């Protein structure tokens, strides 16, 4: 539709508003008393059929004017229903007003439920009320045999104008209804285990808890630089130090990094921490959580990234080094940093010449192992060099830590540690991270003196987990892009001209 045509249509609809107002009709009344939602009226149709005084309200999605009688469809938040309006039933004035209406208007209708000769459940309208006059036309909405089609197919525009997407592609709502159910199910899981749900700062004087670039902002009253949180880990650990033994938080996190099919700069995660447990306990707990979600959703298998994932089967477990040896074909018992760098170069894996052993092992894993991890798999024993907040592997030489990540269909879904609670070791690791940052690594973590002071008061043995909820919801709803599970994903500004 050209801009000129759009402006003409909007001018015509504004004229209708003026016309209606002159007839004494308020195009934007304050409220409407409805007796039923569409879904409820259809579910109770047999009991309600033939009874008068059924009031529904919704958006006008189609209409067929046939002289003195018309059919239409309205849609509310629960579903769609057909309307039958005749001049004899609603009166000449109301019928004339109906003829001034447009697709997209909100109307209230009062009448009785009936079945048409074709068997369609319909509301026979006795009284009609305009509730909100549409000015800007909806996208190219067409209807055939009661089904919408060709409705707003441009994916990018659907993300930019999610409100229109929800109107003309109502099935999209199912993903977000399911998202809310998943949140409720997760809360119930932790409530049953007597965890305390908490809230920690989004605006932080120092970011930490993950390796990522932050967003910066400025607080005028205090005249200080603040950061949007990249993770809530260090604050939740402060609560463990303070005496809360089980805490969890649904956290909105922000990372100033690239955007792709599984990453958005603003995302939701859940993190939880429990005193006196380790990452072996957490593996059992995470697996239980996923199975709990499958039960609540009444579904065992989930289609994701062209794979069928069965969450009822036991999850696999394997150390990172073992998996790298298997898929890369390198003997890590003898390989040093130089050899790992050579293997990366031979396989065209991007790796800086000054990368350490842990970074190179992680790079090999990302490129040559991760895509093969389809069935849910806990990858354990990560390099200490890339895990500054995890406790060293017991009975190890200090190279690896007690950390796992959960992979499903080639994607990471959870990250967990037996948390480091030695303040001296923690300081050394954060200072090593600060050195990496000074050398140009923008994702290395800074030294958080307040957190280190908190640790010096004593932190019990603790286990902690973080799960990106947007990616989890992608898995549980079968969506391939993170944008499909975010109501308002971040988008590049549209070019002008």
Can you give me a brief rundown of this structure?
This protein is α+β, with helices and mostly antiparallel strands.
Describe this protein's structure.
By secondary structure, the chain is α+β, with helices and mostly antiparallel strands. It folds into two domains: 3-137, OB fold (Dihydrolipoamide Acetyltransferase, E2P), CATH 2.40.50; 173-315 and 375-485, BirA Bifunctional Protein, domain 2 (2-Layer Sandwich), CATH 3.30.930. The protein is built from 16 helices and 20 strands. The strands form five sheets. The chain has an eight-stranded mixed beta sheet with strand order 8-12-13-20-19-18-17-16, sandwiched between helices. Strands 1-2-3-5-4 form a five-stranded mixed barrel. Helix 8 (172-192) packs across helix 10 (279-296), helix 11 crosses helix 13 and helix 14 packs antiparallel against helix 15 (449-456).
CATH architecture of the largest domain: 2-Layer Sandwich
Number of domains: 2
Largest sheet: 8 strands, mixed
Given the structure, what is the number of helices?
A: 16
CATH class of the largest domain: Alpha Beta
The stretches of 5 or more residues where confidence is low (pLDDT under 50) are: none
Biggest β-sheet: strands ordered side by side in the sheet: 8-12-13-20-19-18-17-16
So what's the oligomer here?
single chain
Per DSSP, what share of the residues sits in E-state strands of 2 or more residues? Answer: 25-35%
Radius of gyration (CA) equals: 29 Å
> And the CATH topology of the largest domain?
BirA Bifunctional Protein, domain 2
Class based on secondary structure composition and strand pairing: alpha+beta
